[in-house]
Structures are given as structure tokens and as C-alpha cells.
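To close the chapter, one final illustration. This time we ask the reader to focus less on the individual chains and more on the assembly as a whole: which components sit near each other, and how the overall shape emerges from the parts.
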Amino acid sequence: MQFIFDNCDIIIQGTEDFSLSDTLDCGQCFRWYSLDSNTYTGVVAKKHLTIIEKDNRIILKNTSKTDFENLWKNYFDLGTDYTTIKKSFDSNEILLQSTHFAPGIRVLRQEGWEALCSFIISQNNNLKRIKGIVKALCEKFGEKLPCGEYAFPSPLALANSTIEEIQTTKCGFRAKYIYDAACKVATKEINLKNLYTAPIEEARTTLQQIKGVGPKVAECALLYGFARMECFPQDVWIKRAMKILFPNGLPQCANNHLGIAQQFIFHYARTCPEALGLDKKLKVN
DNA sequence: ACCCAGGCGACGA
DNA sequence: TCGTCGCATGGG
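The assembled structure is written out below.
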């Protein structure tokens, strides 16, 4: 993978391990929208970005070398060698199929608070509604940026609001959970900075002190928001896949990259359940 | 009308 | 400790 700085654009060459649709539409993030089949736009950390994919290149439009080095390179985890990781999965047939199905998936390194809040919203919900609620939350409580887009709301902005106000975003019963998370984070009762390096069990326990955060939401927040690649969120799709495709448990070759394996399996299972025998009526609890 | 959605908390046994 | 049920809202 090579990076070329062309005026205000960043051109990424060698994109066999990076596809916008695979990465941004695989269910891990909620603030990216496709304008057409090869253009996406989104906001991360108060920065708005348009990205184009064409001719085996990915172009970050109208940004800067500073933002690329300080934000985007880390956000898209461009320093990690996915070729080697995917190769390590090849000894298992199902993992091989899942990496071949969407070879351009990369697990994003999202902001911690945004990931935590977004995955609280994700519970008993679907992707379209999650994105709609997150969008409404940003527009109501987030800082308006010069470009006209909105940043993800700070914990303090939500803690200074009320459950009733938060409910206007149509998040339903999750409003009280969002509020509790915002209060605990804003007051530093829970210090998110510790979660990057704390022992993983301690990090899980800490997050589950928040109302509405159980094992699954905590696991997602840690994986997507705090780069804890040893996490393996088990939602209904992963549970179905485990039952049918991995009845004897995950193969050992997945152990060093559980979070990445999970994302490939999740996307494969959710996108083509029939071909894999993953009937939606399959009970997993 | 009914069921489901990247679950979780409350409650009863 | 473990199973069951309700939960807000919208789409199929």
C-alpha cells in the first residue's frame, strides 16, 4: 500500500486489502453514506471527508497531509498488513470463504465514545434505523462544523440534556441508556482513556457498569472504539454462524485476530444467510 | 396482522 | 444462576 500526496488529495495505491463498500457497509460504522457506487462521505472526529474509489485507487478528497497522518491513516488502520492476516485464516475453509467474499474489509479504529454510544443504540435494532438515530443524535446534539455537517455529540452535551430530549431522535427505550453512558463518561466515573490498555476483563466489566451495556455492546465498543482486536462480539449472526459453521468452535488460526475474523464472518453470514444454511428462524439462545 | 432487528434489564423460580 | 418477557420504532 502506497500513499501519494497530490495537492489536497491523498491517493492510496495497492488497494487489494481495502474496498470502501466492504469496509463502510459491513455493519461496523454508522456515519458513512454512499453518494454513488464508488463515492462515500462521512464525519470522523470533527473532520468531514469524501472518498472515491476508482481504477484500483482510493482517493481521500480535499484533506491534508496532517489530517491523513494524524487521523485517517489510523482510522482506516492503514499500517496493518491485512494480506498476512487473511493468509493466516486460509487453513480454515469457512474463514477462507469469508475473506474471499469481501476481501476489502478493514476493521476501523473509530472514536471510543462514538463506538460505545452507537453500539448501545444498535441493540435490538437494524442497521438502517441505527444510522438514522445516530444521524438525528448528531444533528440535535453535535457541534455544527464549518462545512455544515455535524460532529458526533460529546458525552457532556448529552449529559446536559434529558432522557426526553434524547428520545426525540426515535431511539426509544435506549434513551435512558445513552443518558446513563453520557453521565458516567462526562463525570469520569468511567474513564474511557483507560480502556485502550486496561486488562481486557477489567475493560469489559467497567463498560458493563453502564445501564444498557451488556457483554455484546461492551465487546463491540472495545473492538471498534478502543482497538481491542482480541474482542469477539457475538451477536445473533455470529451465534448462528458458530452453531452451523463452527460447531467445534473457532479454528486456532483465528485466535491472533479474533476481532478481524469476527468482522469477516459477520458480514458473510449476514449478507448471504441462505447459502450458508443460516436460517433467520434458527434459534441461538 | 405478525415478526424481526449486531441485546439488555427486570423478574420469578 | 438461569429462562422468559417486555421494550420503542420502523420495515418486510
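Residues 27-28, 119, 122-130, 173, 177, 211-217, 220, 233-238, 266, 270, 280 of chain A lie near DNA strand B (CB under 10 Å from a C1'). The CA atoms of residues 92 and 123 of chain A lie 30 Å apart. With these observations in hand, you are ready for the problems at the end of the chapter.
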